[in-house]
From TrEMBL, chain A:
Keywords: Dioxygenase, Oxidoreductase. It holds the Pfam family PCDO_beta_N. PANTHER family: DIOXYGENASE, PUTATIVE (AFU_ORTHOLOGUE AFUA_2G02910)-RELATED (PTHR33711), INTRADIOL RING-CLEAVAGE DIOXYGENASES DOMAIN-CONTAINING PROTEIN (PTHR33711:SF10). Signal peptide: none annotated. The gene is pcaH. This is Protocatechuate 3,4-dioxygenase subunit beta. PROSITE patterns: INTRADIOL_DIOXYGENAS. Residues 74-102 form the Intradiol ring-cleavage dioxygenases domain. Belongs to the intradiol ring-cleavage dioxygenase family. It comes from the Bacteria.
UniProtKB/TrEMBL annotation, chain B:
It comes from Pseudonocardia sulfidoxydans NBRC 16205. This is Protocatechuate 3,4-dioxygenase subunit alpha. PANTHER family: DIOXYGENASE, PUTATIVE (AFU_ORTHOLOGUE AFUA_2G02910)-RELATED, PROTOCATECHUATE 3,4-DIOXYGENASE ALPHA CHAIN. Keywords: Dioxygenase, Oxidoreductase. Gene3D superfamilies: Aromatic compound dioxygenase (2.60.130.10). One of its GO terms (molecular function) is protocatechuate 3,4-dioxygenase activity. The lineage of its organism: Bacteria, Bacillati, Actinomycetota, Actinomycetes, Pseudonocardiales. CDD domains: 3_4-PCD_alpha (cd03463). Residues 31-171 form the Intradiol ring-cleavage dioxygenases domain. Belongs to the intradiol ring-cleavage dioxygenase family.
Amino acid sequence: MTRFPPPPDGTHPPLGFAGYRSTTLRAPSQPPVVLAHRLTEVTGPLLGADRVGPTDHDLTSQHAGEPIGQRIVVSGRVLDSDGRPVPDTLVEIWQANAAGRYAHARDNWPAPLDPNFTGGGRVMTDSSGTYSFTTIRPGAYPWDNHHNAWRPAHIHFSLFGTSFTQRLVTQMYFPDDPLFGQDPIFNSVPDAAARQRMVSRFDLAATRAEWALAFTWDIVLRGREQTPFEEPHDD
Amino acid sequence: MTDRLGLTPSQTVGPFLSLGLPWPDGADVVDDDTPDAIRIGGIVFDGAGEPVFDAVVETWQADPSGGFDHPDSPTGTTFRGFGRCPTDGDGHWEVRTLKPGPVDGQAPHVDVSVFARGLLDRVVTRIYFPDEADANAADPVLATVPAERRATLVAVDTGLGDLRFDIRLQGEGETVFFTV
């Protein structure tokens, strides 16, 4: 059966991370049991385009007027770690508005809500694994994790891939954010190189003239173990 | 030889996942008029015994014949197999589904992911069924779980045909979580 090798150490955050206060009562205290992959784990929901509504790809078009803020295009490819594109897979996002406020009843930070921005989006990747959203650049916002704590601007991403083992929820950040250094969620990823893989890049080529700035971000899900059918003999 | 690409790390869903993740029919793995539909649900608790009101629980399972709607499944099906339910203000979640069949020599089970603020990665568990004592006793995954903790993975029959599966993230009675 197809197997998915474990992620390299340092790629994913530990569940218990002292700097992020909400982990204190929520991170399990017992070590996890290793579940060898069987059919339930190597399969997974293959959700279709019926999950995506007509304005879900464009978060600036979901209300009567345009939202306030810097219009941006966020796009990239969903790949597995062997470099294979993941076509026809659902990508879901949610984010704060340009002022750093979420359109959510429990977000009580006194930055303005935007009646023209909800902040939720969905798309399917195309046959080359490419996704694209139009949205506005989210703002940073304060939170009560520690004194003077601010989240770097980010967009939440949810991905399924093609198996239960590939399920991933993460956050996309923007390049050169001065708030990275003090953010425990960003820094919960142990490996510095892995941390940088959460940061999008400004992409001048993808920028739409007189319309929108563009940020490119590829997402890499776990790959399947390749069956060695031949020994390398490149002598 | 191709270099493997570095994986994208996991990050928490944060407190406002309900802006992006819920679907109107997320908790309905099957429609409410489906014969033999069952409800499985419970409360997500934190280490202080308080309900977790900002989590989302996702389920993935076979149909009653042990098939998945997936090309790697030897038995095909049109059964969606996937459920998604955010917890409410009382920490409660529930999906309407069908009892899965045995899969691959395993007892009937449902794979579960829990996402929440304070969870930097999902936690994964499994639901087993209380009317499958013999199959559970022979299940290769349950066999890897310390015997005194196996009960955390078996749903409780509430007597109304519904199954209760509470998820305790931490502390006394902590649910067994798996690395996948």
